[in-house]
Amino acid sequence: MNLTRSLIRVRRRSAFLASVFAALAALLLTPTALAQQSLPSIEQLVNEPFLDDYYSNVVYGYQIVNDTQHFASRYVGNALNCKNCHLNSGTKADALPLNVAGMYPKWRAKNGKRNGIGLRIRECFVYSMDGIMPPDDAPEVLAIAAYVTYLSQGEVMGAEPEGRGVPTLPATGYDPNPANGRAVYLEQCASCHGEQGGGVGDMPPVWGMNSYNRGAGMNRIDEAAGFIWANMPLGQDKSLTHQQAFDVAAYLNLQYRPADPRQSKFLKLLEDLLP
Amino acid sequence: MNWRTEVFAGVVGAILVIPQGITFAYLAGLQPEYGLYGAIFVTLFTSFLGSSSMMSGPNTAVAILIGSAVLPLAGRGSPVYIDYVFILCLMVGLIQLLFWLVRGARIFQYLSPSAISGISAGAGFLIVMASLDSILNLSTFNTTFFYEKLYIIVSDAKDLISPYSLFIGVVTIAGGFIGRRYSHRYFLIVAVACGYLAGMLVSFIWPQPVTELEYLGRMPLQWLPLHVPTVNIEYLMTSIKLIPYALTIAFIGLAQSLVIVRELRMTTDQEIDLDKEVYAQGLANFLAPFFSTFAGSGSFNRSKANRSLGASTPLSGIVAAGFVLLLITFLGPILTYMPMAAMAGTLFIVGLDMIKWSDVKHYAPERPELVIYLATFVGIVFFGLATGIAIAVFLSVSVFLLRISQLDLSVERDASQATLKVKGSLFYASVSHLTEQFRTLRDQDLTVDLQYTTHIDQSAVDFFTHEAGSMATHGTALTLLVNDQQRAFLLSLGLSDTITLRSTQPDEGDAASE
What we know:
The complex is a heterodimer of chains A (275) and B (514). Chain A has helices at residues 2-38, 42-47, 53-66, 68-71, 82-85, 87-90, 117-126, 139-151, 178-193, 221-231, 242-254, 265-273, and strands at 106-108, 113-115. Chain A has 275 residues and is mainly α. The radius of gyration of chain A is 24 Å and the shape is globular. Residues 507-514 of chain B have low confidence and may be disordered.
């Protein structure tokens, strides 16, 4: 009787001591410890032998973004990967970063529905990847959504993250000139993307049936010009003039590429059925 | 063996299994290619190692159970989910191999045929409900009971149901029912074809971003999808939760395979070894994860088709496996644009076919069988497959025990003495039936005729000793009519010597067997 009571007391005291130590440790280590605890780096996660449901989905999403051809081949129709446009696996500012979970769901008057990040992801599959729209509960979509959520930790809900999308280039006062663009392309881009736009080696194609389709965001001259100015030629960000970026974007836009799935449905059907 | 019939049956089997593999993978919560690999490798291994013309492969009940086991642990189709499915299948394979080691095939005869029919009907119901998801293009939502789901669908029809998807589903089902009038064998293929064409029509008029139709998509198929399942401590710790499911799946998988095999053994002259079939199925399921697929079992409908085409050896299964590989390699690009609604439509037909009114009529005359059938069905419909199977097993065993503890007693009495004939098995559960008879016959000399008693145990001997004692106080005597074997046996169990043992003339049957 006595013995058990004293045992309990001892245990209580040690529990108390432990919690004091824990609190002290927490106070001292707060900045580093918290940061590490709340956001393990993606490399850490990849090497972890066992992950819970959320983090395993984050890793799967990361793998899809890097190697869409392999990990989400079901819905892909061209030779691109998400990271070809969402550079550095969606972490580079001004290169369509993916830390945008706080911007969704957004209200769209058109169908009177709130559209979540899922729909945006599925749209990139249909247009940028010229593929099939996955259902909104497809494992691939959920995994990418988990990865987007992971990247967005620390962002403010509803506030536009720094460097979202691509920079909007100021109007130059001249219309984009595809002929000029062709010259720029052959000089600055063809070494990687190929004279025929098909990509040299494992560089991504910028036109042709293996590239994004006419419905893609990259098919809008402003969007493409902003992307190219901020990120291309790879490794020499912002070396082009604004006008050069507009010109080369216009040139890319003139080339042939898969049709917009919202128009020319018959053509699309043929394109898809005849590989 | 006529190899041409075998090969033809194999080809038909391959055509039948492709939609099943795809849809059952969906039921198991996996990507379609896993089901197709199952249609190839599980079929191949079972036929190769087994001894019968049974067609194994992806199976409804097994697929549903896999889905309900793993879904609480991880998101549908995510990598962790797949890892868990593989671990589950390894467990299932091991348990089945264990069954083989203890020569456990016999215990499945205790599962009454009405229980198997009830499970099949219940699984059919679950399939129909699951197929609604894709036919109506619902996103996943969970309800406890099926009628809640129906209620939500009906009350929110305008928001939930996609008309495009519904159109394709309805065309598929209609195609199936009309096709059945003309060909009982190929109507599922007719149904799929109708659904596919309906899907083309829809996608020709409206683009996919508008219809949001779900397509099968490009399947990353490989000829040899080798894979080493991840097994580590953390997984195994969590997998403990899977053990009850592994047991259920192992059991229900073998039960279905063995029902098919037993029927084949009774109605054909194939040389079938039940234990070998257990071994084949167990090993096939154990190997499944190494070939990127999940466990399966014998398929009733494909085995039936196989037999009706005259196949009588495992060769047809082997050919079917090879042909699936060939077909999907060539059909791959076409399958990409297969609407899931068309797949679900065929699933709907398959599920509806499994709920047979004729089963109810078949079991109606036998009250206990009917009760087992209905209780199993209702159990599955309301509480899920695993619970339903538990009910089925429990009721089958209970009915079985009730039956064998029944004794067939007949009394002949004249002025001086009575003779009691005992047919059946005399053991602790059935002895009590004798008590009553003894009460009424106590004041006469009594002869108990044990010639037709199949089994006697210690409690029966104790009973006789005790009764002989109380009869002695009434001044009457007990005589047992036994054969030589029984005499020795009874004495060795310590039968009181107040009982007279009288030998019968040895029975003809016994004499012949000795």
